[in-house]
Amino acid sequence: MRKIILLLTLIALVACDDKPEGKVLSASSGVLNALTVVMPNDMWAGAVGEAVREKLAGPVHGLPQIEPMFEINQMPDEAFTGFMRKQRTFLKIEQSDSSGTSIVKDEYARPQTGIIVKGPSQEVIINQITQDSAKIVNAVKNAEFTEKIRQISLSLKEDEPLTEAFGITMKFPTAYRYAKKDPNFFWIRKDIPHGDMNITVYEVPYSTVDRDSNTVGSLIKMRDSIGGDNITVSEGMRFITEAAFAPYLEETTIDGKPAFQMKGMWEVKGRYMAGPFVNFTVDDKENDRYLVLEGFVFKPSASKRDNLFELESILRSVKFVDKKK
User: Considering only CA atoms, which of 260, 320, 271 is closest in space to residue 294?
Assistant: First the structure.
């Protein structure tokens, strides 16, 4: 009996949060790409709410139609109790003597990311939101990427072919299939209602990418050449970057390695087929190459944000390892 009591005590201690209250944290909840915003209703209806909507509900880059970065659910502080505090991500606006933006982890549930923005006046709060918008967006995005990979990891596809060919691991679900496994080009696909989701992986010589005056141009030339040669379309047609939409480019990292992230639109020249893509061109200087990871979606006349988000989550899960012999 004494052993049972001791065991139960140990379990309780492990389950307890290490905060002073010693409370047990339950699992967080919430759909992906949704953000709970806690602030007074009158503030939400005014300039502060407008600043939040501008920075956090603005359109996602690289999509053919306007889709918000996050679905926002606003509530006043008095409603942010009980189950509502279990949301995986939340932004809380507080009027106080001090000002600043802070990130809190596992405050009411686990895993949970909270962002607290404080200021003595609405003007200061608006400036704080504007100044720290990238920090806020990245905190929420990183939490959502982590959750998506957790979901994906429940049923993983075998990625050993990628390790053998490119020296990487990548987490993607069993719903995907290998459509092409050439020595230098992999094409991985997933069927969805009225369309498909696609991943391509290949490598190019280190000299391929112009890092100075025309980075975007050299990346487009690269993907149009290699993608066009390897993505199968009807005879006389070609898979290319759509010229009517200028791609969005930024620098990021994949597994600690510097990378260019490009978002834009692809099309099949000569046929009415198009959709969004996200491309990571990873600087793998140690192996004298760039590793190219791309996801693209074909899903006409439907929202594509969550599809592109899944592909980006998968590509961001890539880790570099030694090639298997």
Answer: 260
Q: What is the pLDDT of residues 275-306, one digit of tens each?
A: 999 999 999 999 999 999 999 999 999 999 99
- The verdict on pTM exceeding 0.85 is yes
Region 146-162: mean pLDDT is 97
The mean pLDDT of 57-82, rounded to a whole number, is: 94
Query: What does the DSSP assignment read for 231-292?
Result: S--STT-EEEE-TTSPPEEEEEEETTEEEEEEEEEEEEETSS-EEEEEEEEEEEGGGTEEEE
- Does residue 186 surpass a pLDDT of 60? yes
Can you spell out the DSSP letters for 62-130? Answer: T-SS--BSSEEEEE-GGG--GGGGGBSEEEEEEE-SS-EEEEEESSSEES-EEEEEEESSHHHHHHHHH
Inter-residue contact 75 to 38 (CB < 8 Å): yes
Number of Cβ within a 10 Å radius of residue 79:
12
Contacting residues for 227 by C-beta, under 8 A, at least 6 apart? 200, 239, 240, 266, 294
User: Strand pairing partners for 204?
Assistant: 290
Residues 128, 320: Cα–Cα separation, whole Å: 38
Cis peptide before 161 (omega within 30 of 0): no
Q: How far is 313 from 308, CA to CA, in rounded Å? A: 9
Angle of CA points 247, 166, 309, to nearest 5° = 40
281 and 292 Cβ atoms separated by less than 8 Å: yes
Per-residue tokens: 143: 């939490």
Strand pairing class (289-298; 274-284): antiparallel
Domains of the chain: 15-151 (3.30.379), 156-320 (3.40.1000.10)
| Phi, psi (degrees; rounded to nearest 5) at 79 | -90, -15
